[in-house]
Amino acid sequence: MKREVIKAKNHEIVEYWFSRIDECGLSVDAAEAHERCWRCGCKRTLERCHIVPASLGGSDDPSNLVLLCHRCHLDSPNVADPEIMWDWIRAYGTSFYDTFWTIQGMKEYEFIYNRSLEEEFKARNIEDINEFNKIIKEEMQKTTYHFGDPHLNIATIAGVIRMALKRYEEM
Question: How far apart are the C-alpha atoms of 129 and 120, rounded to whole Å?
Fold first, then answer.
């Protein structure tokens, strides 16, 4: 059986939620909630995402929908407790737009190599951040997207950080 198209419009979802919630701790503010993902804060095409999935009895009303990019929509929780969605969105809140995935890549780096980027800078005596950023940009140019995904995944970002650290040491 084919599911009906969600009738609630993005502006209705934004109006509903941003008149009821405190935007503090979110990755987006009310002024840009119609064009930026509520989890990552990136300016992308947004999808209407159920807080409680339709398959678990959730409605298509604005009160049960948030706006997420495709990437975040795929990662969103699929549970019947609406509080979980808001806990998840707020847990990833970032203060600056378009930094979310870089931050996640840095966390991935720390997970893989058991050392934060800050610890790496200290251990390797990296003081010229501008030079390091230049190397990062050059290494980013040498990457590719995974399976046609138009974004670098966090493992690739972590790998670029590692390669940039190695290149910086060789200078």
Answer: 12
Q: Which residues contact 106 (CB under 8 A, 6 or more apart)?
A: 116, 117, 157, 158, 161
Residue pLDDT, tens place only, 39-59: 999 999 999 999 999 999 999
In sequence order, the 6+-apart residues with CB closer than 8 A to the CB of 47 are 67, 68, 69, 70, 73
Global confidence as pTM: 0.87
Report how far residue 15's alpha carbon sits from residue 7's, in angstroms, rounded to the nearest whole number. Answer: 15
Query: Tokens at residue 16, please?
Result: 């509903």
Cβ neighbors of 99 (< 8 A, separation 6 or more) are 41
Amino acid at 63: S
3-class SS at 162? helix
**Number of residues assigned to the chain:** 171
- Rounded (10°) CA dihedral 105, 133, 37, 147: -60
Output the CA torsion sign for 62, 66, 68, 70.
negative
Specify the amino acid at residue 107. Answer: K
